[in-house]
Write a structure and sequence with these properties.
The structure is a homodimer. Helix content of chain A is 44%, strand content 13%. Chain A is of the alpha/beta class. Chain A folds into 2 domains: 49 residues, RecR Domain 1 (Helicase, Ruva Protein, domain 3); 91 residues, Dna Topoisomerase Vi A Subunit, Chain: A, domain 2. Chain A has a 4-stranded parallel sheet with strand order 4-3-5-6. Chain A has a two-stranded antiparallel sheet with strand order 1-2.
């Protein structure tokens, strides 16, 4: 058996998504062999994140400032608002560099199974932002899962009373996707939304 | 884009074996949502390991003391010495709780491809330990890879001049293994070493 310090670290690491006990043990050995080049930089990065990261009171993004750099960026289009389930979705969308508006993070999705109702999500905050009259279009960028789509329909109903455009992401063949590997649902959606060429 | 603090942490984590950039990002979000239950305990565990873990000057194990708890344990059989490539192998062998002797960590394997020669491994230390006359049997517990077996044969030659038993691990079907999933080499070895039943 290795020492309790190492077992504790293996336990902490193996709770991370994507790491099991075996890969956590390998990671610990990797770190132990590279104290100055890997272990100590990792500790500093974790401490920096723990000390500096805040939740944005406006959109729910995680950043070093509140409001976050996206909410403060005046070159962003304040009339365009993308609603996402999670901070990870916000980052993924922002990495595409195509969306020039602002975001609103719900903090989850409606799920009867997990006992997540409308009051557990940041829906009140979303409606308040729309009520200011600044927003002209809300893009409901939920995941294409059952629960994501349930959430999307619920939000579309809630937003119906405002005089704004409510849109959602297109379904279809992902870029680089091969038909052979796609499920029938995606192919059906891509067919229904087919476009004229040339 | 997320903030530089988060990007730095994603980078640090994605260098760990078993984690790519995508899973590192997921792990960071997991930690950010659980500061007190996951992020802070992880920092403490890493710091404890960084501050307290030492390399054993006798066997090469990583432990909180030098000599390590295995080298200090007088209930262990000092006449039996298992030579392993890496600390991870020592831990794996010790988890089996069957081996009652002590260990010697080589710190790698001979590899012409990676430019690892005999001088890069803790072979001198091994020979010194055997020279004391305390060791009666050396178990060469190398991995069953090409390089592991090359190292094994090199060590067997080096140990030939001592009046001791030199042994190695048995090859065969792993416990729980299904023949259908095993390579021909393993099956051939298991057949050659077959035992009478009953």
């Amino acid at each position: 058996m290795s020492s309790p310090e190492i077992e504790a670290l293996v336990q902490s690491l193996s709770r991370l998504p994507g790491l099991g006990p075996r890969s956590a043990r390998r990671a610990v050995l990797h770190l132990l062999k590279r104290r100055e080049s890997a272990l100590q930089p990792l500790i500093s990065s974790l401490q920096a994140v723990d000390e500096r990261m805040l939740s944005c009171g406006t959109c729910g993004n995680i950043d070093t400032s509140d409001p976050c750099h996206i909410c403060r960026d005046h070159r962003r289009d304040g009339s365009l608002l993308a609603v996402v389930e999670d901070v990870a979705d916000l980052w993924a969308m922002d990495r595409s560099r195509l969306f020039s508006g602002r975001y609103h993070v719900l903090g989850g999705r409606l799920s009867a199974l997990d006992g997540v109702g409308p009051d557990d999500l940041a829906i009140g905050g979303l409606l308040s932002r729309v009520e200011t009259g600044e927003v002209a279009e809300v893009v409901l960028a939920m995941n294409a899962t059952m629960e994501g789509q349930t959430t999307l329909h619920y939000l579309a109903e809630q937003l119906d009373r405002f005089d704004i455009t409510v849109s959602t992401l297109a379904h279809g063949v992902p870029v680089g996707g091969e038909l052979d590997y796609l499920d029938e649902g995606t192919i059906a959606q891509a067919l229904r939304a087919r476009r004229a060429v040339g």
